[in-house]
UniProtKB/TrEMBL annotation:
Native organism taxonomy: Bacteria, Bacillati, Actinomycetota, Actinomycetes, Kitasatosporales
Protein name: DUF6230 family protein
Any one Pfam family match given in the protein's UniProt record, by short name: DUF6230
Length: 204
């Protein structure tokens, strides 16, 4: 602990130390946001070694397409995921949280949006998740369609001969998922709030 941190009055924040912990996460999110807005992120980027939580009170979409693939982290380790392509998504009360190890301990990086500020919207949303929980309604569902022939969400197709599924209008209430990556063309995050806290609360 530095001399300036040691002399802080009780209840005061060590801003220099907090900024040191928070800066990498903030810069990473800023770069990710720019990449998403420009449609520059591909689903094939190397993922981190830690999955993260995604939650939303309600998700609606014009369509959904899904198939199984493998994400890989920089150490070469594979992570089986269900790729979920969601066309023109609208979400309420969203939350994303990841636990990051730092020299100071476990830090929870948490992003929330929506709520009273209004719905969050995303085009060309792709989530690589290892699970998904919620109460769902699907329109015109097709289960077992060849992954290479999926057409419910433009650009979301898998390898020929692989299992796939798709549906038309989709509504999912009480969304909870553990994901390895999320990309999108354009995000509008109303009421955005970002928090970095030692031993902080996650989404669920």
């Amino acid at each position: 602990m530095s001399g300036s941190d040691r002399n802080l009055p009780e209840g005061r924040t060590a801003w220099r130390r907090t900024a040191l912990v928070a800066l990498p996460a903030v810069l990473a999110v800023g770069a990710m946001g720019v990449g998403m807005a420009q449609g520059a992120l591909a689903a094939s980027f190397a993922v981190s070694g830690t999955h993260f939580q995604v939650a939303s009170k309600r998700l609606t979409s014009d369509g959904l397409a899904s198939f199984v693939q493998t994400d890989r982290s920089v150490d070469g380790k594979g992570h089986p995921v269900a790729l979920l392509g969601i066309g023109n998504a609208r979400l309420s009360d969203i939350c994303q949280a990841a636990v990051v190890s730092t020299p100071l301990g476990k830090v929870v990086f948490k992003l929330t949006a929506g709520g009273d500020a209004g719905e969050v919207t995303a085009s060309d949303l792709v989530i690589d998740g290892e699970d998904l929980v919620g109460d769902a309604e699907f329109g015109t569902a097709q289960i077992g369609r060849d992954a290479s022939a999926l057409d419910a969400v433009p650009g979301v197709r898998g390898e020929a001969g692989k299992f796939g599924l798709q549906a038309g209008k989709v509504t999912v209430a009480g969304v909870r998922s553990h994901a390895w990556s999320a990309t999108g063309g354009n995000f509008r995050l109303k009421g955005l709030k970002l928090q970095v806290a030692l031993e902080g609360d996650q989404c669920f």
